[in-house]
Amino acid sequence: MTTRVQEARTATPNNPPANGSLLDGQLYVEMATPTRLWVGVPTSIDPTGRKTIVDQTTLGNALNKTGDTATGLINFSAGINVTNAPANVPLAPQDTNTLQAASTSFVLNQGAAGTQLPVMDGATAVVGTSTRWAHADHVHPSDFATQFPGSNALVYIGDTPPTAVDRLLWWSSSDGCLYVRYNDGNSTAWVPATPSTIGQYLPLSGGTINPGPLTINANAAAPTPLGILQVVGANGGNAAVVADAFGGVPSYSGRVAGGTNAARTAVVQGTVLSSLNGFGWSGSAYSYAATIQVSAAENFTGSANGALLNFQVAPPGGTTPISVAIMRTDTGVQIRGTQTNDNAAAGYVGEVITSASPGNSIATGTWTSTSQISLTPGDWDLSGVISFAPSSATVTNAFAGFGTINNAGPNPPIGNSYIASIYNTAGMSGPALVPPVTRFSFNATTIVYLLGYVTYTPGTCTTTAYIYARRAR
């Protein structure tokens, strides 16, 4: 069977066939760039009565359905639908950024876990194994170690704040407070991470300050360092340290051992176990002025721990404290005496009070108060003397002593131990009696009398009396 194909052509370039000009099945070659081949079709297929069969613009490098290879660019305006075996595409290296197709192998390789550890903020880094891709707009947390080299902590530590990063924590080594960089939407600032900035602090219970020192300063100025624990008062205020106890005893203890803390040895005689010292500002420095010391009076053993108290003060015009009182159980209390010609003040040990009463009449055979003295509360030692002076009479008996009842006998009348006496001495004209030193102890101010007794005949008699009282304690 022979099939004849009708064809037509045009010698005019770029002149496609007119609508309805081709017979059904008639071919028409358009001399154009690119060349096109048309075919006539019924208007039921295309209202123009024509359709393009070949157009070099889109099929210049046409592919067979199977077994062919394209070396140029192919455009698929409606996409590709692969229903059988997967279509293989060339494998591109990782990080390729072109318009070529990406295979599943490329996708997995591109998203595969790396071998380099990510930079972390001091925490242990772990290589991930997930092949999932992160969102394009994900944000990593701040790389603390990169922003602040040399710091491995999650909290920056330093005397001054670091470069501002919102939500960053900063522990100030100058005041011991924790701060956070806070952004309220209008401004940013370093604010305390705790309710209040309290400076260097002690734990609520337990804890050790090592190595110290610790200063509690209530003054605006910096203190002069001294010791491990220092309390500084405000100007014009007291620097008081108070220990309160309820049902117990507030106490201060000083403990001393020889050697070291790891290898202690017993203290020896003369070791100062504790001291309370007083210093005063001399114009350029604090000067040592006085101390109360507890010292070892012997070498310490498990059964011998003798000690003494030593009170020392610097004398006027001097700078070195000397002992003014030493207290021991074996030698008692040794008190330094006065170093000048002064008198003990009223109320102090050694206080002296005297009384003199001349020319008092005394009747024969009657206890009479010849002198008196007023003594304040305390222990007193009294001594005195009575001189009897008869006018023309002869004294036969005379007595003298101290008492607290006016014009009565001495008291307490313990035999004759508190009385000076002369018995049955005929012809004695003017005796003088000195009663023994007598102790009196009072809890209120009391008058003590020097009492005299004399018998004589005839005539009259007068007395001259003197009382000397010294406070014993």
Could you characterize the architecture of this molecule?
It is a single chain. This protein has 3 helices and 26 strands. It is mainly β. Among the domains are: 7-59; 149-192, no CATH class; 273-278 and 288-335, no CATH class; 352-471, Jelly Rolls. The strands form 7 sheets. A 5-stranded antiparallel beta sheet has the order 13-14-15-16-17, with no helix packed on it. Strands 18, 20, 23, 24 and 26 form a 5-stranded antiparallel beta sheet that branches. Strands 1-2-3-4 form a 4-stranded mixed beta sheet. The longest helix has 8 residues, at 104-111.
On the 0 to 100 scale, the average pLDDT is 80
Radius of gyration: 61 Å
Structural class: mainly beta
Mind telling me the CATH class of the domain at 352-471? Mainly Beta
Q: Residue share in helices?
A: under 10%
Q: How far apart are the first and last residues' alpha carbons, in Å?
A: 163 Å
CATH architecture of the domain at 352-471: Sandwich
Regions with little confidence, pLDDT below 50 for 5+ residues: none
